Amino acid sequence: MRTTTIGVASLGEQIRTLREQAKLSLREVAGEIGIDTSLLGKIERNERQPTKDQIKQMSYFFKINEKALMKEFLSDQFAYKMIEEEVDIDTLRVAEAKVSFYKKSKR
Fold this sequence. Notes:
The protein is an all-alpha fold. The protein has helices at residues 11-21, 26-33, 37-44, 52-62, 66-85, 90-106.
């Protein structure tokens, strides 16, 4: 099973790259993963975000580790939210500390 290339490309851009490398049309991939062609196009253009189920279907279809694809999806969400809220990178450090605290307090 492959993992996605970690970098600055969005999840949508990575999906488009995988589809193009496989020389598949939007219609072919959309049909295989069970979504509308226009929705897949919007996901590739970052106009819509995929659901968890769609991410699972994409990972299965492209033979990509599902957790790696979810990391890419979530990192997009973090980045978009940080831009929207106009916060700096230090916000991620605070969030990381909180995640550690919350995990420990659940035990």
